[in-house]
Specification:
Beta-Lactamase, 5-stranded mixed sheet
Length: 236
């Protein structure tokens, strides 16, 4: 079985053919033997020996190579990330799980109020997504586009046409979401099953509450003011 010997780019000697090992029986399945000898341009290239030969099959996918390493030491391509990187990733995952656990506890505490039917914490600065919500609740479906409308500069349009919260059309009753010293928007879902919805603004997230049927929006407004006051103190 013929083997092509490809020399490094710095060497200008002709390509030679060497015969395959006697025990090879695979017909018409040549391999390329890649030699990278030491040169002045590549002083760190190791000397060629049995332990540093790299074989690349013609039939292998592009950029896929198998290497024979010394004494069973794995090649650099098979090594995992450095220990510090793995430890940092594990630490980040642990912090995320801890924060998620904190938010779940916060959601449970808010839902102890029997006048509140649903609650969600939604990011609006770094990441416009739902951080935490009541399992199976409607407010878990709040979209980034809806967050953009709630926190956007155009406050006049949705006062006239309404807005959407988790896919439910709502009419806006009172909008002081971006006002200094307030930070709350009052709305109500349209239709026969109208529910009061109240949105509170904090530096990084929105607190969205939906009341049970028959609960007045003023009650939710006071509750949201109390809750976002505590969240702002934690963020400051």
């Amino acid at each position: 079985m013929p083997i092509e010997v490809l020399l490094g780019p710095e060497l200008r000697s002709p390509v030679k053919e060497v015969s395959a090992a006697p025990h090879s029986s695979s017909p018409a399945s040549p391999y390329m033997l890649l030699l990278e000898p030491r040169s002045p341009l590549h002083p760190h290239t190791p000397h060629l020996d049995r332990g540093s030969v790299t074989f690349a099959s013609r039939h292998s996918p592009p950029c896929v190579r198998t290497s024979r390493s010394r004494a069973g030491v794995p090649s650099s391509q098979s090594r995992g990330p450095p220990r510090r990187a793995r430890a940092r990733a594990q630490g980040t995952g642990a912090d995320s799980q801890r924060r998620m656990g904190d938010w779940k506890g916060y959601i449970s505490a808010v839902l102890r109020d029997q006048r509140i039917d649903d609650v969600a914490i939604v990011g609006h600065s770094d990441n416009r997504c739902v951080w935490a919500s009541r399992p199976g609740g409607l407010l878990a479906a709040i979209s980034p586009q809806e967050v953009g409308v709630l926190t956007g500069p155009d406050r006049h349009t949705f006062l006239q046409t309404g807005l959407s919260v988790a896919g439910r059309r709502c009419c806006v009753i009172r909008d002081y979401l971006l006002a200094e010293g307030d930070g709350v928007l009052d709305a109500r879902t349209k239709g026969l099953d109208g529910r009061a919805i109240c949105v509170g603004h904090t530096p990084r997230a929105l607190l969205v509450l939906m009341g049970r049927r028959g609960v007045h929006g003023g009650i939710l407004n006071k509750t949201v003011h109390d809750l976002i006051g505590g969240l702002r103190e934690q963020c400051s």
